[in-house]
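Postdoc handover notes: sequence design on the structure in folder B. Input tokens:
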């Protein structure tokens, strides 16, 4: 590929001009999920060193247009998914209705004891048994949200063994006859903690949307689940519709 002559404006950093040209090309010719040419190829095309080219790509990453995938390259991002937050939102059915392929992976499950905020939100006594499940939900094979589910163990006997992935709420309804409805959701932005970034396949310096949700049992109004969700902020925008 021939060298590209940059029409650089006075005082304008060269890497910014490269970023602008790449942004135009992405808008005109690229589809979501498409890989950009390798950095050496782009650097040769624009007649710059790889450091300058990398700064240009960083501009696109910070703008949410592309993402780096370790060992694979730089890929054009899909438009953020408008994910509705309603009283009975279910990830699988909601995202599927938006036209995306969905999947769910069980990361870990464990029996723990109720402490602090978990005990308070589930209206349990300190030390009561709680089922802790952690799942990663994917859209179009890409991680979108990591969810920690906390459920009162006495309300769902056998849940720890019964759940191996898929729709948790569908299982609760089919096996225990429990239908849940969202009572409230609190949303904050924060950097990923622990192994959240690894599980979401994202950089540690990019924010997640942390959503704390209490789901109540429709029949009696008691707390049936406390969930802490971490959405990739570059892949989703939350739409509240109650």
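Designed sequence:
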């Amino acid at each position: 590929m021939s060298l590209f002559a940059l029409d650089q404006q006075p005082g304008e950093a060269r890497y910014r001009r490269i970023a602008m040209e790449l942004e135009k090309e992405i808008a005109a010719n690229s589809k979501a999920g498409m890989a950009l040419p390798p950095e050496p190829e782009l650097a040769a095309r624009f007649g710059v060193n790889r450091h300058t080219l990398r700064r240009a790509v960083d501009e696109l990453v910070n703008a949410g247009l592309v993402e780096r995938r370790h060992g694979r390259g730089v890929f054009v991002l899909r438009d953020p998914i408008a994910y509705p937050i309603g009283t009975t939102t279910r990830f699988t059915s909601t995202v599927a209705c938006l036209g995306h392929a969905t999947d769910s992976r069980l990361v870990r499950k464990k029996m723990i004891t109720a402490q602090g905020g978990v005990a308070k939100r589930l209206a349990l006594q300190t030390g009561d048994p709680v089922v802790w499940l952690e799942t990663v939900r994917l859209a179009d094979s890409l991680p979108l949200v990591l969810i920690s589910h906390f459920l009162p163990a006495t309300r769902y006997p056998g849940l720890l063994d019964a759940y191996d992935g898929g729709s948790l709420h569908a299982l609760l309804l089919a096996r225990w006859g429990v239908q849940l409805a969202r009572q409230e959701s609190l949303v904050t932005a924060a950097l990923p903690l622990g192994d959240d970034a690894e599980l979401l396949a994202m950089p540690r310096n990019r924010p997640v949307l942390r959503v704390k949700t209490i789901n109540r049992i429709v029949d009696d109004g008691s707390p049936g689940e406390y969930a802490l969700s971490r959405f990739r902020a570059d892949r989703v925008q939350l739409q509240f519709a109650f």
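Context for whoever picks this up: Helices lie at 14-29, 39-46, 50-62, 91-97, 116-121, 159-162, 168-176, 196-199. Don't rerun without checking with the PI first.
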